[in-house]
Amino acid sequence: MEQPPKSPDSQRPADSDGGLPHCYRHPDRETGIRCTRCEKPICTDCMVDASVGFHCPDCVRSGSGTGHAPGASQPRNVVGGVVHAGDPRLVTKILVGLNLAVFAVVSLAPAGERILREFYLIGGVAAPPYVLLDGVATGEWYRLFTAMFLHEEIWHIAFNMLGLWWLGGPLEAALGRARFLALYLLSGLAGSALTYAVAAPNQPSLGASGAIFGLLGATAVLMKRMNYDMRPVIALLVINLIFTFGGSNIAWEAHIGGLVAGALLALALVHAPREKRALVQYGAFGLVFAAVLVTVLVRTASLTL
């Protein structure tokens, strides 16, 4: 993300060697921004918007950066979200725990197979004389959502939860809890919608892969905006796409749908102009949700006419 214009409080002398100071949390990054509370140098990844200047994460967590006068604005992150002083990975941990809990129930409960059949994504199951008995096309739209939390194989949930942990924590810290959760869920729904629209209606699908690919797309956009080295995330994306199209029993539609949705939402989050930030961000989430809704309606119409 580009450095914003320096406020008068953030302009400090450079290091004694004539260069810019380095972020106290990322010694390899030069920065011209300092915390207005403790005056430690902070990079754009660490700075937290405050009513005056910027604060460092330490001051925000300790509360010294949040002691504004009544009516003053709360510290916000680089996309406008409120910075919480608690665990920066709270939502990520909850999502990982929820996925693991559902996997345990499905794996250990006697009714595990029935739970999978009732909640995985399937367009419709036909029976003679070709009448749809169950599936999204028959009104079971909840399957678009519940399939995001179902896994059948241990390797499947292991890879997805590793991806969620590695990508989710930094993104949650950068975007804030609400925006991160909305991006995760909407990316997963976009993946489900594309799977429903393209795959055979009687082909079951399940897993958090669509949402994980959404986080991957958002990470790439955020790193590009902050002028970070893109080679690691590009390599990760290429490897995942090779597995997506080269493996068997992989719903590539969920991966691509989630990836595109996550990238588009992240573009709106990090590039929204400050004066119209809320309008642009909420509008982008609304448009992606509308696209998901239209996709599901069109596919349902084609299966039920």
Automatic annotation (TrEMBL):
Ranges for domain Peptidase S54 rhomboid: 139-270
Matching Pfam families: Rhomboid
GO BP annotations listed: proteolysis
Keywords for this protein: Hydrolase, Membrane, Protease, Transmembrane, Transmembrane helix
GO CC annotation, single: membrane
Domain of life: Bacteria
Subcellular location(s) per record: Membrane
Principal location: membrane
Any GO MF annotation of the entry: serine-type endopeptidase activity
Start and end residues of each stretch annotated as Disordered: 1-23
Gene3D superfamilies the UniProt entry points to: Rhomboid-like
TM stretches of this protein: 94-112, 119-142, 154-174, 181-199, 205-223, 230-248, 254-272, 279-298
Claim: Transmembrane is one of the keywords in the record: yes
Topology of this chain in the membrane: Multi-pass membrane protein
Assigned protein family: Belongs to the peptidase S54 family.
UniProt protein name: Membrane associated rhomboid family serine protease
Protein species of origin: Streptomyces candidus
Upper classification of the organism: Bacteria, Bacillati, Actinomycetota, Actinomycetes, Kitasatosporales
